[in-house]
Specification:
Layout lengths: L26 H11 L34 E6 L15 H10 L4 E3 L6 E3 L13 E5 L14 H11 L15 E8 L2 E6 L6 H4 L8 H4 L4 H6 L9 E7 L3 E6 L13 E6 L3 H8 L8 E2 L7 H6 L3 E15 L9 H9 L3 H8 L4 E3 L22 H10 L6 E7 L2 H16 L3 E7 L1 H9 L6 E6 L8 H8 L5 H6 L5 H15 L3 H18 L2 E13 L4 E2 L15 E2 L1
Parallel strand pairs: 1-9, 1-10, 13-14, 13-15
Antiparallel strand pairs: 2-3, 4-6, 5-6, 7-8, 8-9, 10-16, 11-15, 11-16, 12-16, 17-18
Organism: Nonomuraea zeae
InterPro entries: Peptide/Ni-bd, SBP_5, SBP_5_CS, SBP_5_dom, TAT_signal, TAT_signal_bac_arc
Pfam families: SBP_bac_5, TAT_signal
Length: 558
């Protein structure tokens, strides 16, 4: 998609982003391929980083000559930067990456290994199976405005996360966290509903925010608009949603991962060609860019850049409206998955940088196991299922985000469905257009989009709670919430979440993943690899991450 990875925001008309590669589709592709398969054309991108995030403004601001300035890292982010910067309510790829440099959690996690380490807290919990954890705050921790970080700030932040209006980060905490209490000015206690060993890495999602700043009238709107006051190693110095956000090292930071350069300037460039150009050539302005199109990987390598991929939960999914016939019939949903020639999609659209899904979780995930139902390419089985369901002459309008790699995959879906007798029209469109329709619960049949819950964490419980949660927007979009199968799934997820024996927990996870695969309400077609490029002569300490954005907390100019 042309934006970051977004989740529906908790406003009246929710905004969200869901994924990387939010650049607009090339005109060549849209004319030759989209018009070939669709009767309608749309505009831009999907659930990834920002609604109008999918518009790339000026290519740079204040970074001319940055290539030779060793006190500055200039980065190119391939997602829009005009979505919420409120850490408790955003899934914007750009904002979440920036937030990780500006704010801290009690605990934070390494961006690649996802191992937790003490951030604002002084130590990791000693007993992961305890039903309450106490944390002492780092002595001398300060907000970027110079005020001290206190226990009141921690309680304030968690009250917002656990509040009734929080439909994003709250989903990752409310099932197991009862409350957060102040012990004294520098100590807090987290009280659990039951022992939850996975809570340690989960706490990185809860970026602590200053009460004296964000308890003021209108302050949450300012946070959404880009205001950021944290305790992290970098402070925000400018925020221009259509062009860039800049940072500088915070002299008052005394935590575990101090700033490694004096300044950073992050450019938002959604257009793929402009993004690649910004990092290309001997006089390249930027030293690093994420969201590199597969077609440009070898070109950049030949120029001496390092280009590496990260494999994870990044995926294209299909979501069905089960409130519209015949998509209320599981056989129809399964037939449309079996019909897709995934290997062709991987070879042609993803240039080999993908894997056909064999579970909701990606292969390589610690809890991955081939599901009881795997949608290997089987057009004859697809035809048989449609016949068994009594469905013939089916016509589908496939709504989609026109992020480049998603758009590249759409013709394969259309051709595959046409081959089993399903007439298919493609309707790619931008995030705002698509999700305004979804938020208004307008009628639709099938949606194709991208998502990556790894932005928030790695454990299976978190990944499933991104999409499958009682009362969640995705469940409302699919009109599956409240069904007997949904209630069964949620009960299975709750049981697994409360289990402390790891072997038994894994069994329960595999059981509910089998149900998710069988029902195919919102289910991956392929998992793909995200590509990051950087100049090793100018930057060291870079690791490509398997989710949108970048992390420069250990990067250095060379």
């Amino acid at each position: 998609m042309g934006c970051p990875t977004f989740y529906p925001q908790p406003h009246k008309v929710q905004r969200r982003c869901t994924h990387p590669q939010e650049e607009p589709v090339s005109s060549e592709f849209s004319r030759r391929d989209f018009l070939r398969y669709s009767g309608a054309t749309g505009a831009a991108a999907f659930i990834a980083a920002t609604l109008s995030a999918c518009s790339g403004g000026p290519a740079s601001t204040g970074s001319v000559g940055a290539g030779s300035n060793k006190d500055l890292i200039t980065a190119v982010i391939g997602y829009g930067n005009d979505q919420s910067w409120d850490p408790t309510q955003t899934a914007s790829a750009f904002a979440m990456a920036g937030i990780s440099h500006v704010y801290e959690g009690l605990l934070d996690t390494d961006p690649i290994t996802r191992e937790p380490y003490p951030a604002l807290a002084t130590a990791l919990p000693t007993d992961l199976n305890a039903t309450s954890w106490k944390f002492t705050l780092r002595e001398g921790a300060k907000w970027h405005d110079g005020q001290p970080v206190t226990a009141d700030d921690v309680v304030f932040t968690f009250e917002r996360i656990l509040g009734p209006d929080n439909v994003l980060t709250g989903n990752f905490f409310k099932s197991w966290l009862k409350e957060v209490k102040k012990v004294d000015d520098r100590s807090v206690e987290l009280v659990f509903k039951f022992a939850f060993p996975d809570a340690a890495p989960r706490l990185t999602i809860a970026k602590i925010m200053p009460k004296h700043v964000f308890s003021q009238a209108g302050a949450w709107d300012q946070a959404k608009g880009g205001k950021a006051v944290g305790s992290g190693p970098y402070r925000q110095t400018a925020h221009n949603p259509k062009s860039n956000t800049s940072f500088e090292a915070f002299d008052g930071y005394n935590g575990p991962r101090p700033a490694t350069v004096k300044k950073m300037n992050w450019l938002t460039i959604v257009d793929a060609a402009a993004r690649v150009a910004k990092i290309s050539g001997g006089s390249a302005e930027a030293q690093i860019a994420d969201n590199i199109p597969y077609a440009n990987v070898e070109q950049l390598k030949q120029q001496g850049l390092t280009v590496e991929g990260g494999k994870g939960m990044n995926h294209m999914f299909l979501m069905f409206n089960t409130g519209t016939k015949p998509f209320d019939d599981v056989r129809v949903r399964q037939a449309l998955h079996y019909a897709i020639d995934k290997q062709k999609m991987i070879d042609v659209a993803l240039k080999g940088h993908g894997t056909a899904s064999s579970s909701f979780l990606n292969e390589g995930h610690p809890d991955h196991k081939r599901a009881s139902v795997v949608y290997d390419y089987d057009p004859e089985k697809a035809k048989a299922l449609l016949k068994e369901a009594g469905v013939s002459n089916l016509t589908i309008n496939l709504m989609a985000v026109n992020v480049s790699w998603i758009a590249d995959c759409l013709p394969t879906i259309a051709a595959s469905w046409e081959a089993i007798g399903v007439k298919t029209t493609l309707e790619p469109q931008d995030t705002a257009a698509l999700f305004t329709k979804m938020d208004q619960f307008q009628d639709y049949q099938v949606v194709a989009a991208a998502s990556n819950p790894n932005q928030f964490g790695m454990d299976a419980d978190l990944i499933l709670h991104y999409n499958y949660v009682p009362g969640g927007l995705w469940m409302k979009y699919s009109h599956w919430d409240g069904s007997k199968d949904a209630e069964k799934l949620f009960a299975m997820m709750d049981e697994a979440g409360k289990e402390t024996d790891q072997a038994r927990k894994t069994e329960l996870i595999h059981a509910y993943l089998d149900l998710v695969a069988e029902q195919a309400i919102l289910y991956p077609v392929v998992h793909n690899e995200l590509m990051t490029a950087w100049d090793p002569k100018k930057l060291s300490g870079i690791r490509a991450q398997p989710y949108p954005g970048i992390n420069l907390l250990q990067a250095k100019r060379t």
